[in-house]
Amino acid sequence: MVMVKRKIRVLIGKPGLDGHDRGAKTVASVLRDHGMEVIYSGLHKTPSEIAEAAAQEDVDVVGLSILSGAHMSLFPRVREELAQRGKQEVLLVGGGIIPAEDVDALEKDGYARLFGPGTNTDEIANWITSEMQIRFESEGDEE
Amino acid sequence: MSKNENSMSATGSTETVNRVDARAIWQEAIDKARLREASFSTLSSDELQSLYGPEDVDIDYDRDLGYPGQFPFTRGVHPSMYRGRLWTMRQFAGFGSAAQTNERFKFLLEHGQTGLSTAFDFPTLMGYDSDDEHSLGEVGQVGVAISSLDDMSTLFDGIPMGEVSTSMTINGPAPIMLAFYIAAAERQGVDRSELRGTIQNDILKEYQAQHAWLVAPEPALRMITDMMSYCADHVPHWNTISISGYHIREAGSTAAQELAFTLANGMEYVRRGVAAGMDVDSFAPRLSFFFDSHLDFFEEICKFRAARRIWARKLRDQFGAKDPRSWMVRFHTQTAGVSLTAQQPENNIVRTAFEALAAVLGGTQSLHTNSMDETLSLPTEKAVKIALRTQQIIAEETEVAHVTDPLAGSYFIEAQTNRLEQEAEAYFEEIESRGGVVPAIESGFFQKEIHLSAVKYQRQLESGEKHVVGINCYVEDDEGPSIDIHRIDAAVEEEQHARLKDLRSRRDPVGVERELAAVRAACSDGGNLLERFIAAAHADCTLGEISQVLREEFGHFKEPSIL
Asked: Which end of chain B is more exposed for a tag (fewer CB within 10 A), N or C?
């Protein structure tokens, strides 16, 4: 595990009406095992509810999960809602049933990484940790 | 096979070896042998012995197995099983608009399919109209969008509703959707008493696993008993609940949890029906079941056998049902979507074939086989056809359908069937000690059990204790999908908005207000809600409007936090 200066704060969000939460909850548990502070939004949240929770909890990372096919409508909307609340710097990641060309489009839209089915959960945790370490270091440089 | 027969000796050519000695010799050899793993377990992490013999299973043939079509139905619900009729090959379909799915339905009927199986989109499953703000991006994505009687009439346009049997997979707003279906049939001039089909309507597993609910559990159960009572009197050929383990398993449960939670839910519906004043035999024969078939071949077969035996014993001995049809677990099976991989997706054809074979050897009444591309998108026509052909190959080429319950009597099969029954019984006690199914839902008991099993499996996979080809063994570098995917046209959402706008402008607003008020009144005065929903459907009230009244009157379900 990569060491960082402070605990990484993560919001795992389930936007839309899709009830498939096995992946979201499993990733939430694994990130917590890796020492992160994890908040889970619960099901059936609108993009604005997720962005609001991210702002109130002052998280570093927002991870979204959709398996219903609504990702191209909802993922960009969450990013916009976050920006409206001054949270455009948050590390945005996602997962679910997302076709390859949509992954490309979302990565151009500000999503740092999309994790598909079969991804090793430790790999997700380690990737987030190392990304955040870079961000924390650059924050330190500014100070 | 009972334990008291163990003194029987095996005879050799010149000397007689005592069975106990023989087993000890074998055990010693096993203990010395070099094995591939430290321990071996089922997919659900139950430890397995290397061998099962007569001393490992306590079975009384007449008490525990019996004959097919007879109590306790361990060997099957029909005397002739697949010699009489093969299982129904029922593939689940639905996408886009009502008109698009209507075309697919007609295509399927023209090609010899006799039953329809309808998938709805998430807004419909949650009781929202296509133009609700919650529906953004979801309209028509994972199923067909149905917001009104007009949509339902379009879905069945040109299809004789008095002749086809229809399965509708919907739960929270199931009574409203059945009301739309009845009203659409009446528009065609078909009487409700002629309708045949199944509606999933299993709300308990929604709170536990699938999570498409409309209101809190108690009022949801009241709507279900209203529906069971209404259908017993007016829609006698309708299967009112398909009690579903599928979603529980897909959410991460073990085989034993799927079995136990599903049957516990089933018993809860029976209790509610009896408490509402119905004779158990007036509605229990219309209850059916829906299970997952996962990759652990033998464990799945045993699960199906145990389900039949447990339910028969409970209904006869605990609930006092006298009609043998009340004792029977008739079930649909779907192969495990969660077992499919996005990596090397063609391998999913093979996984699905093993799972389908387990369902057949377990005695399923109908079967849906998943398509190889479902971890990537909704299935393409080609993938759906291969999935259907998989069932046809089992039926036509393997010759497995000629003998009923062919694995019965295997020490291993009977020991695992017993083990699953015992694990289920332990769960029934645990649920009882938590105050019953609804309190256990409200405290998050089922949700937590399922989550812990899901995390445990993920950890076993990642530590290499469990293996999946393409994920943690035989991995290929270039793992991108090599197959076409199926996309839903985003225009469906706009078309639905226009249809609803048009409906709202031409319907009679007085009638709408009157029928919504009647629904509201029935929520508190105890009138049968299904009757009110049918009247509201005829007045062109929308799904979202009726659902909103129910949400206001009955309150939301607050998801317990289990993380």
From this structure: C
